Prior knowledge:
Distance between the termini: 80 Å
Strand content: under 5%
Helix content: over 70%
Amino acid sequence: MGNLKRVMISLPNQLLQEVDGYVKKSRGNRSEFIREAMKSYLEEKKRQEIREQLKSGYLEMSAINLQLADEGIKCDGPTIYFYEEKLAESE
Length: 91
């Protein structure tokens, strides 16, 4: 990690104690822990943004698909009726 910058942050005492407890068990250090936590947080935020974009896209496409289906039924309706009528006649 060549391009590191030092930053100062304020944390609630309880949170810092939890971090220190975990760091001690894992034999790491605070900086590594904070870096990994921030990376994980940012990755999750990106995943949430993508999910929201997909959700929005699916909702938009559902309206378009419904409209296309309605148009298809209007066009195919007489053909389907004619087909069913011929089937009924053959029975």
